[in-house]
């Protein structure tokens, strides 16, 4: 599943169907692509959702410190699901996206499939 980004950015998103923790997913993406998926606007968010398998959640490169992308840049664009982020049990510091484009904070140690990006 490779989706080429929209005209304003050369990002390519790739869905990885192996389940890993957020940190292991980031390491994999940095080794084989550029990084875990970073999403700067609505069109990129749609591009990520387009590579997700139906009814499947996947890690993206957002984490709480406060909310930043895995390259350390601020998160200007967000697309949280209803009632999110809620930091349930005080340990939800990483983020995944569903195929309806919505984001949810989850414990970083949970093993999930993930989306990498290649490009800028």
UniProtKB/TrEMBL annotation:
Gene3D superfamilies named in the record: Mannose-Binding Protein A, subunit A
Domain of life (superkingdom): Eukaryota
Pfam families, alphabetized: Lectin_C
Entry annotated with the keyword tRNA-binding: no
Keywords attached to this entry: Disulfide bond
Residue intervals of the C-type lectin domain: 8-117
Stretch forming the signal peptide: none
Keyword Disulfide bond recorded: yes
Name of the molecule in the record: C-type lectin domain-containing protein
